[in-house]
Amino acid sequence: MKGKWKAVTFFILPFALLFAAFYLAPIGYAIKQSLYKVERQGTFGKATEVFGGLAQYERVFSDGPFWESIGRVLLFGIVQVPVMLGLALIFALLLDSGLVKGRRFFRLAFFVPYAVPGVVAAIMWGFLYSPNLSPFTAVTSNVDLLSADFVLWSMANVVTWVYVGYNMLIIYSSLLAIPQEVYEAAKIDGAGALRTAWSIKIPLVMPAIVLTTVFSIIGTLQLLAEPAVFRTFSSAVTSTYTPNLTVYSTSSIPNFNLAAAFSVVLALATCVLSFAFLKVTQRGGDK
User: Fold this and answer.
1) For the residues 190-214, what does the mean pLDDT come to?
2) Are 274 and 217 in contact (CB under 8 A)?
3) Cα separation, 239 vs 248, whole angstroms
4) Percent above pLDDT 70 for the chain
5) In contact, 285 and 206? CB cutoff 8 Å
6) For this UniProt entry, which residues form the secretion signal (predicted)?
7) What b/e sequence results for 130-161 when a residue is b if at least 16 CB atoms lie within 10 Å of its CB, and e otherwise?
């Protein structure tokens, strides 16, 4: 029995140490920092960090631009996530249908955008959107894709382009795990390709769709690279355009204590939304 526990400890300990060092410790440090504030004696006095209790959180909950940025990314997610996952599901079903020739090529072609770093993708699309730099001047000269009305959806297009292939591979892998006997039974019952996809494939890959949705919810609230890059192309993107950009801008002042409080509230909001979505989908699956 002792030997068994030694083996378990041997395999778990490296993960536990890394998890504590790179996940739990930063969270604890952020919470600790959020409970302090900086005070000065006079205008040019030395800055001293003192315990402030919930003072930073009072500032967070009274910060209008921060909550506007929360609402902005929620709107972003409500529109962009279904479009992205819908495309990923369609592409995965097409690859699994047998109607598409050259599956390996298309799997790679769909996944390649995900291999492009987010900052590079944002810069590339920023040039394509720019009226003065874009090769598609017939479009950009008539529609300002970097204006306040369109810039959020321009960023949504970048995120969709990058992550459709990634989510498609997750769903496609789930499709490959479905036993062939299920398809054979459906064929015997007279189910066509569309009926099989709707009544068999989609329900069976629903756990993968739920997983990708949770990842997308988390990613939406953490949106940073695209707005940070688009600030250089568009004046419509402010330093508080998204929650993560607010955290970054606040820490650059620098006001690390307030930035830590923003981060803690954002993390809690992300957890609440993710777990709420999981609960809703679990209840739907139990019915």
Assistant:
1) 91
2) yes
3) 8
4) 96
5) yes
6) none
7) beeebeeeeebeeebbbeeebbbebbbbbbbb
Domain extent at residue 48: 2-55
Tell me which amino acid residue 205 is: V
Residue 187 parent element (H or E)? helix 180-188
The residue count of the chain comes to 287
- Our count of domains for the chain comes to 2
The first and second tokens of residue 86, run together, are 């819908």
- Residue 36, strand partner residues: 51
**What's the pLDDT score for residue 286?**
58
pLDDT of residue 102: 80
pTM reported for the whole predicted model: 0.87
Place of tokens 């770093």: 117
Strand residues in the chain grouped as ranges (E): 36-40, 47-51
Q: If we measure between CA atoms, which residue out of 262, 239, 250, 285 comes closest to residue 60?
A: 262
State the pLDDT confidence band at 42, using cuts at 50, 70 and 90.
low
Question: The CATH number of the domain where 95 resides is what?
Answer: 1.10.3720.10
Whole-angstrom Cα distance, residue 157 to residue 115? 16
